[in-house]
Amino acid sequence: MAAAASERQVRISRIAGRYLVFDIEDVVHMRRHHGICAVLTGTMPQNPTQNLFLGLPIELHAEEAKLLVDKKAGYIADELSEHLSRLTGPDEAARKAYIQSLKRQRRAAHAAFEEEKAKVRAQHQGKRKAGKKAKQTPAVAAESAEDDASTIGVAAAAAAAEGEQGESLFSTAPPKQPAAARESPLPGITPTTSSDLLLPCPARTVGDSSSSMAKDLSPSSYPFYRYLNSRGYYTTPGLRFGGDYSVYPGDPFRYHAHYLANSYGWDEEIPMLDLVTSGRLGTAVKKSFLFGAEKPANEGAVAGAGGSEVRVFCVEWAGM
After folding, report:
1. What Å distances lie between residue 216 and 9, 36, 63, 292, CA to CA?
2. Pairwise CA distance, residues 294 & 309, whole Å
3. Residues 6+ positions from 172 with CB-CB distance below 8 Å
4. Is it true that the peptide bond before 57 is cis, omega within 30 degrees of 0?
5. DSSP E strands, 43-197
6. Cα–Cα dist 279/260, whole Å
7. H-helix or E-strand containing 261?
């Protein structure tokens, strides 16, 4: 199982300059094995204006996508060109297979919808019968039971008479056949992924940092982010606290953030105002202010597992 997890390749969809992941299994794999949370950006198709509860896809920062590519745990796919090539290509069998997969999803959605309707209908009928029984007095209930019994007897007698007439030699009326039930139309669906249409992970892009798309992944904060990730820290966007990252000692579902982090260049001057505001704000929200930079290789840095050395400092404001 561990080997299968290590061999899994996360498909990172590049769409309009953004890096998105649509597969829920990839999302779980990134969070569990690579410490990458990313940001939920999807909305409901029927209510696109809602922004309280977001869902798939998740959006990766450039440094998160580059980390997966460098670790050979993911690859970047140009979704526009791949979708167009698959939809307009000469492979008729692939298009038919994709259409059949959509029909299967629609049938599954229809079955689930009908099952839910049947449950609701049975629940309402049960409540209605219980309400009628509660309103009836014992005498009325006995009379209704007698009426039901007499009705059943009359119906049985009528059925027996019809049976005798049906056995007559001179009976010409054929038995009525039940009308064929019309099949209700399948509901429309919005597929969350198009994995049935696309080809599996192409070998030429797996972990290939020299590819054209991987070359674009060179954010200045990548060494700092890689340093935090290599030491088991989880990160989320730190905009709410005025920083680059909120840094957690474990999964954010289990821990509060311990640090408010910013990345700088090695020779970049850090304004005193940044130190004061970030330090005081971090301390006010029970976090330390963490900042760091990558040491250039020509200054005697010792190369580590992830590349050049990264120097990190932590500031906590006293007297608050």
Report:
1. 20, 20, 11, 23
2. 6
3. none
4. yes
5. 55-60, 74-78
6. 9
7. strand 259-263
More confident residue, 211 or 91: 91
> Higher pLDDT residue, 230 or 145?
230
Alpha-carbon distance of 26 to 32, in angstroms, equals: 10
Query: Tokens in use for 261?
Result: 């982090």
CA distances from 61 to 51, 192, 216, 237 (A): 20, 21, 13, 9
Provide the residue range defining the domain that includes 107.
93-165
pLDDT tens digits for 274-297? 899 898 998 889 999 999 999 987
> Would residue 287 show up in a list of annotated catalytic residues for this protein?
yes
* Residue 196 included in any domain: no
Question: CB-based contacts of 106: which residues, under 8 Å, 6+ apart?
Answer: 186, 187, 188, 189
Residue 21 lies in a domain: no
Per the structure block, which two tokens stand in for 256?
């509060």
Catalytic site includes residue 227: no
Rounded to an integer, the average pLDDT of 297-303 is 55
pLDDT above 90 coverage of the chain, percent: 35
313 and 235 within one domain: yes
What pLDDT band is residue 302 in, cutting at 50, 70 and 90? very low
Q: Of 225, 227, 248, 259, which is the active-site residue?
A: 248
Examine the residue annotation and report whether 75 is marked as an active-site residue of this protein: no
3-class DSSP state for residue 82?
helix
Please check whether residue 56 lies inside any domain of the structure.
Answer: no
| Residue where one domain finishes, among candidates 119, 142, 165 | 165
Same structural domain, 238 and 308: yes
Active site residue: 256, 264, 286, 295, which one? 256
Distance from C-alpha of 287 to C-alpha of 292, rounded to nearest angstrom: 16
pTM: 0.69
